[in-house]
Specification:
The protein has 518 residues and is α+β, with helices and mostly antiparallel strands. 26% of the residues lie in helices and 25% in strands. It has a 9-stranded mixed beta barrel. Mean pLDDT is 91; it is low at 1-29.
Length: 518
């Protein structure tokens, strides 16, 4: 799910506060087995071609893990992203919520034909319409709740009672008859599971899914009522994404144990509703969003299915190839991103073990180990750095909730101090390198519980692009996003331009700060 909100001009006043959610901090668990591409029938040379194409394309990849026959045959993280970091999944979270429903169905706590209203007798509107009364769990699972338009943005931006406001949203179409993507429908699945189990789905899934697969360190955002958001907000590591895909590829079997019934896996990943019944066949043939929707999974071309999140977070399961591809990314065009998988990774998978290709394998390992996003250039600081160090530039009118910006320089480190609404934020940025730190400055397009405490892991760098211009990049390395800020100093004035990264990216209005006199 992607939700963008109105953004004030000053760099500090960005979107939302950071998530509050369920956290798990168990020790690191077992990893997936490793192999080489050729041993599992995959061409290292063709995987190199994929990396070449990814580098030349407009997508900013953050990680990739490719599994064949249950073994990792290629994996890489574009620094500063790392294997040990969680990554925001956006709507890929929905497939985990579907899995929680599957466990609840298996344990006979609910059925997919149960009426939604039956779970919330105390939160219903004064008048329950026939269509609302008719809405089933199945309709939530298949994005056919009958509401229009999708109420997600409205409810999450203004409501403290998401369940009540979902149920109060008019149901204009007969449930089960028409597809309309609705992330609040997935939230309602989370609320239903919590209702029948007495646990948040993150806690409910811990012994049933996360612990058997060795998934730890995860967290999941919550609603104001304390319900996991369900449709978004889960953060796990790339390898954990791959494990989840492998579990579904193996029909719910893990290390010789049936973690979730094979019947549910089949039910949850098979075609349920056509997203575009009137689309021309030639249009459908080119789209991975017109192959049918399942229970919070998408059918894909090449007889695959996937968990799918905004900006290009993918878990792609290919039964015919016995393969899984997990990707984290910031993509301006998710169809174009998945096309790279079909054009280069899929053809690299052959029907039998391949002869060893030491040269290509060595090059592939070297490339994967050296993956990195661009960092600011290591240029000498401007002569202005010493003059400006520690001075404050004030934004806003006196008495109107002023904020300020200050940069202090010490060697190859710039310490930025910012304040807005009485809240201070410190960010350490490296010259020609990125420095990791925690910040309360909320990042672009991060969806989170309103009003919760702020704490994000970032990696920041800076460079002087001219004697009077300082440029910074702040990467939120447990999300797909980053901020670029240009500070132009003109006498006693700071002109601040900020660009937010969600594709295709956009510039915030220019702000002007005035030097605070001592």
């Amino acid at each position: 799910m992607k939700t963008l909100r109105a953004i004030p001009a000053f760099l500090l006043l960005l979107l939302l506060t950071v998530s509050g959610g369920c956290k798990n901090s168990k020790p690191a668990a077992s990893s997936l087995p490793r192999s080489t591409p050729e041993a599992e029938g995959v061409s290292s040379a063709e995987l190199l071609t994929f990396l070449d194409s990814a580098a030349a394309d407009r997508h900013e990849f953050h990680s990739i893990m490719i599994l064949r026959h249950g073994k990792v045959i290629a994996e890489g993280w574009w620094a500063p992203y790392r294997p040990d970091l969680r990554h925001t999944l956006y709507s890929t979270s929905k497939s985990f919520t579907s899995t929680a429903v599957g466990f609840a169905v298996t344990e006979k706590l609910l059925t997919v034909d149960d009426k939604v209203v039956s779970f919330f007798p105390g939160q219903l509107p004064d008048t329950v319409s026939p269509f609302l009364a008719q809405m089933r769990v199945r309709d939530l699972l298949t994005m056919s709740a009958g509401q229009a338009p999708d109420p997600t943005g409205r409810i999450t931006s203004s409501s403290q009672q998401w369940v009540r406001d979902f149920l109060a949203t008019p149901v204009l179409k007969e449930p089960g008859t028409e597809f309309l993507y609705n992330s609040m429908a997935t939230f309602m699945l989370s609320a239903i599971v919590q209702k029948v189990t007495g646990e948040k789905i993150a806690d409910y899934l811990r012994p049933r899914l996360f612990e058997p697969l060795g998934i730890d360190g995860y967290d999941w955002e919550e609603s104001p009522e304390g319900i996991n958001s369900g449709g978004w907000g889960l953060r796990i590591k790339t390898e954990d994404m791959a494990k989840f895909g492998q579990l579904y590829l193996q029909k719910g079997m893990w290390n010789g144990k049936q973690v979730i019934p094979a019947e549910w896996v089949e039910e949850a990943t098979s075609f349920k509703i056509d997203q575009a019944p009137d689309a021309l066949p030639e249009v459908k043939a080119k789209s991975d969003w017109m192959q049918g929707y399942c229970y919070q999974f998408w059918r894909s071309r090449n007889n695959a299915f996937r968990a799918d999140g905004a900006f290009g977070q993918y878990i792609i399961i290919m039964p015919e190839k016995d393969a899984v591809v997990a990707i984290t990314c910031e993509s301006p065009d998710m169809q174009d991103e998945i096309n790279l998988v079909w054009d280069y990774i899929l053809p690299a998978m052959k029907d039998a073990r391949l002869p060893g290709d030491r040269e290509s394998l060595a090059r592939l390992k070297e490339r994967l180990a050296a993956l990195a996003l661009p960092v600011p250039a290591d240029k000498p600081d401007s002569p202005l750095a010493g003059e400006l160090s520690g001075k404050k530039f004030v934004f806003g009118d006196p008495g109107q909730n002023q904020g300020y910006f200050s940069a202090s320089f010490d060697g190859d480190t710039c310490m930025v101090e910012m304040e807005t609404a009485g809240q201070k934020h410190l960010i350490a940025a490296g010259r020609g390198r990125l420095i990791e730190s925690m910040t309360g400055l909320a990042g672009p397009s991060l969806i989170s519980r309103p009003g919760s405490p702020a704490s994000h892991l970032i990696a920041a760098g800076y460079e002087w692009t001219s004697d009077s211009t300082l440029e910074m990049i702040i990467r939120y390395i447990e999300s797909p996003h980053h901020i670029r800020a240009r500070c132009s100093f003109e006498g006693d004035t700071l002109i601040l331009n900020t660009r937010l990264s969600p594709p295709p990216g956009y510039d915030m209005p220019t702000s002007k700060g005035v030097l605070k006199k001592d």
